[in-house]
Amino acid sequence: MPAQPDGAVDTREGDRIEAPVVVNAAGLWSPSVAGLAGIALPIVIGRHPVFLVERDAGFGPAHVVYLDLAGGSYVRPETGDLTMTGSLTDDETRHPMDPERLGEDVGLDEAIPVLERTGRAVPRLADATYRRGYAGAFDITPDWMPIIDESPLRGFYVAAGMSGHGFKLAPAVGEMMAALITGTESPVSLMPFRLPGASSRRISDDMLICHIRWHASHRSRRSEDRDAS
Ligand SMILES: Cc1cc2nc3c(=O)[nH]c(=O)nc-3n(C[C@H](O)[C@H](O)[C@H](O)COP(=O)(O)OP(=O)(O)OC[C@H]3O[C@@H](n4cnc5c(N)ncnc54)[C@H](O)[C@@H]3O)c2cc1C
What we know:
Elements: E1 8-10, E2 16-18, E3 22-24, H1 30-36, E4 44-54, E5 66-68, E6 73-77, E7 82-87, H2 108-121, E8 129-140, E9 147-150, E10 156-160, H3 166-182, H4 205-228
Parallel strand pairs: 3-10
Antiparallel strand pairs: 1-2, 4-7, 4-8, 5-6, 6-7, 9-10
The structure holds flavin-adenine dinucleotide (FAD).
Flavin-adenine dinucleotide binds near residues 33, 50, 136, 137 and 162.
C-alpha cells in the first residue's frame, strides 16, 4: 500500500502501521519496493550467471578463492568437490533481468566461453566436469557503488544497489545506515553513497583509482581477446 506523508502505511485490511523510519534493503527487489512509495531508484538488475564444475578425484585439496582480473574469471570452492566459477566481464548492466528469474538454469552454450577463461586461470580446472549453470544477479548503480541515503520521501531510507559486493560491505553499510538514521557521525563519509542525482554524490579518489584499474584491466583483456580472434 502507498506510504502516507506522515510515514504510516494503510493496509488493504484497513490497519494502519506507524513507521516513521523505513529502510529499503530489498536487494534485487529494492527498485520495486521503492516504487511502492513512488520513488525511482537508478538501479539496474543485471544478470550474472554462475557455473558449477566438479574437480576430478586427483585434484587434491580444494583451491583458494581466486579472482583473475586480467583474464576475466573467478573461482571459489563449493561443498564437495565442486568449484563455483563465473565471469568478471563487468557487462551485467547490458543484461537486465527480472529478479523473479533468479536461479533459472543456464545453458552450456553460455558456460563454454566462461569455462575457457576459468581453465586459463587455473589450468587444472580445464578438465573439470561441468555440472550446471544458473542465473544470479546484481543490483547495480551507475557507478557500481551502493546507495546509502534517505530518499526524497522523509523517513524512507535506501541501503541498496550493492552492485555485486554487498556481502563484504554489509557491516560498514549497517553502521553507516544506523548513523544516518540516528543523526550521529558516520564512520565513513556518506557523501559518495548518496542517491545519484544528489549534487554531492562524488566518487572518492580511492574509489576512482580502483575503478580505473578495474576497467583498464578489462579493456586490456578485451583487446587481447580481439587480437587473438
Ligand atoms: C554470483 C554472485 C557472487 C557474489 N559474490 C560476492 C562476493 O564475493 N563478495 C561480496 O561482497 N558480494 C558478492 N555478491 C553480492 C552479494 O551477494 C550482494 O551484494 C548482497 O547479498 C546484497 O545484500 P542485500 O542485503 O543488499 O540484499 P539481499 O541479500 O538480496 O537481501 C534482500 C532481502 O530482501 C528481501 N525482500 C525482497 N523484497 C522484499 C519485500 N517486498 N518485503 C520484504 N522483504 C523483501 C529478500 O527476500 C532478501 O532476503 C555476489 C552476488 C552474486 C550473485
